[in-house]
């Protein structure tokens, strides 16, 4: 929620540009994540575009579900989630190095 404060300082066209930039960034990172998660390529055809858009739609639904569940998450459980994320990061580094 801290990053939302930057958006609250703007209004009008500046707010629109800030929100548009956030949407473009989410689209670009989402498309990158989808293409990395599903390495098969249909090609540069209309079918490939439809598959990519369908995958982005599924990602958007997943992000919406996670956002709605995390909003109701008790603050007492957040430290355990942080520890779990840190452990996954350490295991990832160990796999990368080893």
> So how many helices?
4
| Helix percentage range | over 70%
Question: Globular, elongated, flat, extended or rod-shaped: what is the shape?
Answer: extended
Strand runs, count: 0
Return residue spans where pLDDT drops below 50 for at least 5 consecutive residues: none
Total individual domains: 2
The percent range for strand residues is under 5%
- Report the sheet with the most strands, covering strand number, pairing sense and barrel closure: none
Compressed to H and E, one letter per element, the order equals HHHH
Which oligomeric state applies?
single chain
Spatial gap, N to C terminus: 37 Å
Description:
With 98 residues, this protein is mainly α. The chain has two domains: 1-37; 42-98. Helices cover 78% and strands 0% of the residues. The chain contains four helices and no strands. It has helices spanning 4-8, 13-37, 46-71, 78-97. Helix 2 (13-37) crosses helix 3 (46-71). It is extended, with a radius of gyration of 18 Å. The model has no long low-confidence stretch (mean pLDDT 85).
């Amino acid at each position: 929620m801290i990053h939302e404060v930057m958006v609250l300082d703007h209004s009008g066209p500046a707010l629109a540009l800030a929100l548009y930039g956030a949407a473009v960034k989410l689209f670009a990172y989402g498309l990158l994540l989808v293409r990395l998660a599903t390495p098969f390529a249909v090609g540069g055809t209309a079918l490939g575009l439809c598959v990519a858009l369908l995958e982005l739609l599924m990602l958007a639904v997943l992000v919406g579900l996670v956002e709605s569940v995390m909003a109701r998450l008790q603050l007492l459980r957040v430290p355990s989630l942080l520890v779990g994320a840190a452990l996954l990061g350490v295991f990832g580094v160990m796999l990368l190095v080893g």
